[in-house]
Amino acid sequence: MSEIDKKEDLEGFVSQLHTPEESQSVVFDHAVEQLVPTELSLLLESLPIEARCARWLQVPDELKTSVLLGMRYQARDSIFLAMDESTLDLILRSLDAECLIELADNLTEEQIEKAFSYLDSKQQSWYQGAAEFDEKHIGRYADHKLVTIPPNAKARDALRALKRGTIDLCDQVFVVDKQGLFLGVIPVSMLLKEKDPMRMVRGMIETVPITVLGTDPLITATETLEHSGGYSLPIVDNDGRLVGRITQATALWIMKEHFESQLMAKVGLTESADLFVPVFKGARQRAVWLGLNLLTAFLASWTIGLFETVLSQVVALAVLMPVVASMGGIAGSQTLTLIIRGLATKQVTFRNSWALSKQELGIALFNGVGWAAVIGVVTWYWFESGVIGLVIGIAVMANILVAALSGVYIPLILDKCKFDPALSGAVVLTTVTDVVGFVTFLGLGTLLIL
Question: How far is the C-alpha of 119 from the C-alpha of 112, rounded, in Å?
Answer without folding.
Answer: 11
